[in-house]
Amino acid sequence: MLGVHEATVSRKLRRATDGTRKRVLKNLQRGGLSRRAAEEALGADPRDLDVNLKKLLQNSQSEAFKEQAAS
User: Does the pTM of the predicted model rise above 0.85?
Assistant: First the structure.
């Protein structure tokens, strides 16, 4: 479909992924994380987190409304 071999696409994707990973690591380190902590953060799989985003967002919105009403 793209007119290039599957291996070419795979190599380009790998280079893009590696470059993105390096930039994210540098940004995390600039933000104060050690290299080890930054690498550990990137190694975490967000699917392993047990987070109820809907509940968190509802709670944060209701807290924001309470703060506005108090002002």
Answer: no
